[in-house]
Write a structure and sequence with these properties.
Residues 1-24 form the signal peptide. Its cofactor is heme b; Ca(2+). Residues 26-325 form the Plant heme peroxidase family profile domain. It is a single chain. The chain is an all-alpha fold. The chain folds into two domains: 39-162, Orthogonal Bundle (Peroxidase, domain 1); 170-304, Peroxidase, domain 2 (Orthogonal Bundle), CATH 1.10.420.10. It has 14 helices and two strands, in the order ααααααααβααβαααα. Helix 2 (39-53) runs antiparallel to helix 4 (101-114). It is globular and about 60 Å long. The model is unreliable at 9-13 and 15-24 (pLDDT under 50). Bound molecules: protoporphyrin IX containing FE (HEM) and 2-acetamido-2-deoxy-beta-D-glucopyranose (8 copies). The site of one 2-acetamido-2-deoxy-beta-D-glucopyranose has 5 residues, from helix 10. One 2-acetamido-2-deoxy-beta-D-glucopyranose binds next to loops.
């Protein structure tokens, strides 16, 4: 083999590896530049208008995008309604308290007027997640590549199988993320999404009242904070009360989540679990620096937004986001 051939092969391998590691597969920047130039602006305008009057929406959309990507990839399967024959993802227990579907519908209706049949619901959701969270900064917090296409299958059972549970330990969390080609670094960074939004009592109340079945509390939970939470969540069965995941800063996207983790005030076992592994806990320490957190969040969101995406002629462009064509 000639040296130059060997060099070309090495360069090719290095470039492919770079491509896989550094971007979202075959998604692109501004995929709709020619086919629907106003697409991203329309999404942002409507999202910002709605977030301006409803501050709980950014958390809803960030979580919705995560749930979409973890089940059959980011293909808007989370937006599909159940049918007579099929129970859809959005009915699955982990999906409890999803919301904001009406905003997606408003955006889709406008996009179908402007450029019919062009912009996928999967891209709309990825953009809305970014734009809703970014409203606070009037600037895009992370880059969203586009070109996703919509799937036509949505099963509640797959949501249950793929979405990590708040009672997961570190090993199970790591496995769940690895199954989506996400690293421990991504796991810790993306858990930072819990800097906004709320959790229902029943997802963590065993930590307050009956951790090992002996009427005890989780010893890894800050005792002062546990007392505060017991005051909010008065019983093991309370499934209506909600608590801010990042106390006093649950409407602000920042890195305080990692500060609360260090005070042993992570709300779920899955939050507290990030301190139980040396590697993960080192990442927590690194993300106490806000600049590092924002940079890392951009990078990990791009990876999450590229999980098992449909591209090219795969899937379809739905006409309405809640039903297949
Ligand atoms: C690491 C594994 C994760 C687990 C076990 C988990 C679990 C949960 C649970 C149980 C809730 C509360 C839902 C409720 O009571 O209504 C929640 C809320 C939330 N999660 Fe996660 N989550 C995880 C990762 C993520 C990721 C990767 C993101 C996004 C990057 C995210 C974003 C959110 C947001 C924004 C909320 C608040 C939703 C709202 O206010 O309605 N989570 N999560
Ligand atoms: C804000 O949006 C959420 C999710 O759709 C909804 O449950 C809530 O009622 C809305 N709040 C207001 C004030 O419109
Ligand atoms: C791993 O992902 C595949 C799809 O990519 C899914 O079918 C499977 O249930 C997942 N397993 C776990 C343990 O999350
Ligand atoms: C983590 O949870 C899994 C599943 O419940 C269990 O099999 C495993 O033993 C746990 N690992 C540790 C280190 O506790
Ligand atoms: C606590 O857990 C144990 C073992 O699972 C159970 O027998 C007991 O009834 C629980 N206590 C309450 C108050 O639910
Ligand atoms: C909350 O718990 C009650 C009583 O156990 C149950 O009937 C209801 O379906 C639950 N609600 C939700 C939203 O899970
Ligand atoms: C528990 O939280 C309080 C603030 O509420 C903090 O002062 C204390 O250091 C925390 N304890 C631990 C062990 O992190
Ligand atoms: C789902 O989409 C695929 C193309 O991605 C198509 O072959 C299949 O017929 C569709 N199934 C349904 C039920 O629409
Ligand atoms: C928004 C939505 O569809 N939520 C559903 C989540 O799942 C429960 C059942 O566990 C349904 O009752 C909700 O309607």
């Amino acid at each position: 083999m000639t040296t130059s051939l060997l060099i070309s092969i090495l360069v090719f391998l290095a470039l492919s590896l770079f491509g896989v590691v550094c971007n979202g597969g075959q998604l692109k920047k501004h995929f709709y530049e020619d086919t629907c130039p106003l697409a991203e602006e329309i999404v942002r305008k409507i999202t910002w208008k709605r977030v301006a009057t409803n501050s709980s929406l950014p958390a809803k959309f960030l979580r919705m995008h995560f749930h979409d990507c973890f089940v059959r990839g980011c293909d808007a399967s989370i937006l599909l309604d159940s049918t007579a024959k099929n129970t859809a993802e959005k009915e699955a227990v982990p999906n409890l308290s999803l919301g904001g579907f009406d905003v997606i519908d408003e955006i889709k209706t406008q996009l179908e007027k402007t450029c019919p049949g062009v912009v996928s619901c999967a891209d709309i959701l990825a953009l809305v997640a970014r734009d809703s969270v970014s409203y606070q900064f009037k600037n895009s917090l992370w880059e969203v590549l586009t070109g996703r296409r919509d799937g036509n299958i949505s099963r509640a059972s797959e949501a249950v199988a793929n979405i990590p549970s708040p009672s997961f330990n570190f090993t199970s969390l790591k496995q769940s993320f690895a199954n989506k080609s996400l690293t421990v670094h991504d796991l810790v960074v993306l858990s930072g999404g819990h800097t906004i939004g709320v959790g229902h009592c029943n997802f963590f109340s065993s930590r307050l009242y009956n951790f090992t079945g002996k009427g005890d509390a989780d010893p890894s939970l800050n005792t002062t904070y546990a007392a505060f939470l017991r005051n909010k969540c008065q019983s093991l069965t309370d499934n209506t009360t909600t608590v801010e995941m990042d106390p006093d800063s649950s409407l602000s996207f920042d890195n305080y989540y990692f500060k609360t983790l260090k005070l042993h005030q992570g709300l779920f076992q899955s939050d507290a679990a990030l301190l139980t592994d040396k590697g993960a806990s080192n990442v927590v320490d690194e993300l106490l620096n806000p600049e590092k957190f924002f940079t890392a969040f951009d990078h990990s969101m791009k990876k999450m937004g590229a999980i098992e995406v449909l591209i090219g002629s795969q899937g379809e462009i739905r006409k309405k986001c809640n039903v297949v064509n």
